[in-house]
Inverse folding.
């Protein structure tokens, strides 16, 4: 199973028993690495199964954390890592609340999952996060509608450590092939958008023609 480029996992991920599934994931990891934008494969707990070098580059300055590294569990990173706001722009409104909405939906589907239960306990242990989950989240979902739990197509701000990108935006694309879906996995890609103003060359007034011929045509000799 592939892992985030250049980084050792703090928590090992289960490997599928089927040789065909393992072979597919091995080939899919090679495909994922060829994608130029940050891309990640997640399970229903938001544990990271595969990610590419662009994903590692986006989070390269994130400090160590025992449970909330972006290459281990992306939901934990968004909700609990103290450095999350240094990469995820407008962190609370544009990242935390959508992720809490996804978590609430996951708990509704698979509330007995021990990883989801552990995340729920961590939310409850943080008074601010608990208030957001129990009070702020329902109001927010009513305001934005059912799309609150849908990541595909949303545009969110990023603070990329590479100065060539800097403060930018990404459109999240949910592009999970059927084989991954059948395994219970989801793939998300953050398509970086160049938000820098386009360079517009200064218009100059053309020089007034005073010669008796076009500049590209030599004059007739006398």
């Amino acid at each position: 199973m592939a892992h985030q480029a250049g980084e050792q996992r703090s928590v090992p991920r289960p490997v599928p028993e089927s040789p065909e599934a393992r072979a597919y994931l091995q080939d899919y990891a090679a495909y994922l690495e060829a994608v130029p934008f940050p891309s990640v494969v997640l399970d229903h707990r938001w544990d990271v199964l595969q990610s590419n070098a662009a994903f590692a580059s986006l989070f390269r300055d994130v400090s160590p954390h025992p449970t909330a590294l972006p290459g281990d569990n992306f939901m934990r990173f968004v909700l609990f890592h103290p450095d999350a706001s240094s990469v995820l722009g407008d962190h609370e409104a544009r990242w935390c609340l959508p992720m809490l909405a996804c978590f609430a939906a996951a708990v509704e589907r698979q509330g007995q999952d021990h990883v989801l239960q552990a995340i729920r306990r961590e939310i409850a242990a943080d008074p601010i996060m608990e208030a957001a989950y129990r009070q702020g989240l329902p109001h927010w979902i009513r305001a934005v509608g059912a799309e609150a739990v849908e990541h595909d197509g949303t545009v969110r701000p990023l603070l990329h450590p590479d100065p060539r990108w800097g403060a930018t935006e990404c459109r999240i694309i949910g592009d999970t092939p059927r084989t991954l879906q059948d395994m219970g996995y989801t793939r998300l890609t953050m398509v970086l958008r160049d938000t820098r103003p386009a360079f517009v060359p200064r218009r100059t007034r053309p020089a007034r023609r005073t010669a008796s011929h076009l500049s590209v045509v030599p004059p007739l000799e006398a």
In short: The chain has seven helices and five strands. The first helix runs from residue 19 to 33.
